[in-house]
Structures are given as structure tokens and as C-alpha cells.
Amino acid sequence: MSKKVVIVGTGNVGTAAAFALMNVDVISELGLIDINYQKALGEALDLSDGISFLRPMKISAGDYSLCQEADLIIISAGANQKVGETRLDLAEKNSLIFNDIIENILEYNPNPLLLVTTNPVDVLTYHTIRYFELPFHRVIGSGTVLDTSRLRHLLSQNCMVDPRNIHGYVIGEHGDGSVIVWSASQIAGINLSRFCEMCEKDCSSTGYLHSEITSAAYRIIEKKGVTSYSIALAIKRITETILRNENSILTVSTLVDNYFGINDVCLSLPCIINENGILRVLPLPLEEQEEERLKSTADNLKEVQQTLIKTTV
């Protein structure tokens, strides 16, 4: 089983993702596209020099013709988030960049499976689906996969438990409107609130972890200018799920249809994912406060969506 993946955008995130994807054993061909062809070519040459340490893989740079017969196309191109900017501040300029990218992709691949990773990822996922009338299950946003990883990492540090034994989700927006589903969080099958009683630490009542998760990217950007490695690993995980047809559950961004009465907006929710894209959105049981916060997040994202519709039509 050999698969072809194309990455559009070889900035910090795209390049880190390419490096991570070199370790996905089902990928036989990796294509890199960038508005700066020489940058993409340089990255392809650099990555190719290390192939002898891994399994055979063709890594090349080129134009959008690379998208022909690609099993997955990852879009990481766009303006970077600057210090003091929110992800939603990037919406208008990155939606315009996306219009050119998607048009070029569709010229060579009329039925692509797309993974959107550019911020604001939930808004741009919606824009891609609606503006180009693409099937929603084949346009996936990286969503809160990274936020969920941050939650599990922080809980593992706080509770001194391997993060692989922690099950919990961050849903909603990849950004300030994220929602931690405390009510469904578990450690080794034990509800988090019950586990916290056992270890005498109440993680869910302070709001500390939510603040740490939503501010993580801002802290990193302030110190090094960009986030790259952790999102690259999130991209790798989503890619593996798709290419290996795993039917794994990840909190990716998808178009919502009557989710707690929420419609016509892309939110990050637990989804079953396989080689065809999103198979199913799972109906998480939410407590009243969690449901209210999710609806508030949806309303905020809809306002940004409407602004984009007015500026791109």
C-alpha cells in the first residue's frame, strides 16, 4: 500500500510536517508546493538527503500538477499569526490566499481529500467547503487535535499519569473559544472528577488548564515567533489515520449539522476518520455549561464567516 501526499506551503509548519511525514511508512511520494518554488525545492532536497536513514520515498517540489492522484493534500500556506494577533484576525487575508490555492488544486484533482491546517482553521475549513461547494466529509480541519494533546499533556503532568492513559477532549474552536469537556474526561476509565478526589487535585474547577491551553500558542509565538513541531505531529497523526484507514477518533474541524441545535458552522468535534475522510461526528454528552460555551463559540465563528462571505463574494 503506497500513498501520495502533497503539502501546499513550505513555511515553518509545512516543513515541520514534511519532516514528520517522512516517518509514515505508507507514504511513498511526498510533494511540496510553495509560491516560492526555490524554497520548496530546497526543502525537498534537504529532506531527500536523509532518505537513506528511512524507507524509500520520493520527495519532490513542483507546481500544482503534483496534486494529480494525491491521496491527501495538506494546506499549510497562509500568513503567520503575529504577536498580539488572534487566530481570527487572520481570517480575511488567509481566505483570499485559500481561494487561489483551492482553484489550483481543483484544476488537477477535482475530488481532493483536503486537510486544512492554516489559521483560523475552523473558519477556513468552512470557507473551503462553502465557497467551492466541496463535500464536507472530504475537507478536514486539523481543529483541536493539538489542543486535545495539550490537555492530555497538562493533565499528565498534574496527575503524574502517562498521557496515553488519559482520555479527554477539547472541542469547539482551535483558539480562544475552545471548550474542555471535563464531564467526559477520564483517566484509565475513572471519571476525572473522581480521580481528582483520589489525588486531592481538582483540575476542572480552577480554569487554570483552559487558560494554559488557549494561551500556549501565544506564549510560543512570543518566544520563538511561530509554532511548528507540535502541530506537525498533530498533522502526522491525522494523516496516519486517513492513509491507514484506521477509523480513529480525533477532534478535527468539520461542518456541523444540528449538533446541539448548532448548524452551518465548522467546529472541532470528535470524528471517526478513515481513508474517505470524516465517517461520522460523535454526539458527545455535554453538561449544560459546556453546551452553552460551545454554542457561544459557534456564534462567534459564524460572525467571522459572515464577514468573509461579504468580503470574498
Explain the overall architecture:
- The chain is an alpha/beta fold and 313 residues long.
- The chain contains nine helices and 14 strands.
- It has helices at 12-21, 37-48, 91-108, 121-131, 145-159, 192-199, 208-224, 229-243, 288-312, and strands at residues 3-8, 27-33, 58-61, 72-75, 114-116, 139-141, 166-167, 170-172, 178-180, 186-187, 190-191, 248-259, 262-274, 277-281.
- β2 (27-33), α2 and β3 (58-61) form a beta-alpha-beta unit.
- α3 (91-108) crosses α9 and α5 crosses α7 (208-224).
- The longest helix is centred in the C-terminal third of the chain and has 25 residues, at 288-312.
Q: Which descriptors would you attach to this protein?
A:
9 helices, three-stranded antiparallel beta sheet, six-stranded parallel beta sheet, 42% helix, 2 domains, 313 residues, alpha/beta, 22% strand, L-2-Hydroxyisocaproate Dehydrogenase, Chain A, domain 2, Rossmann fold
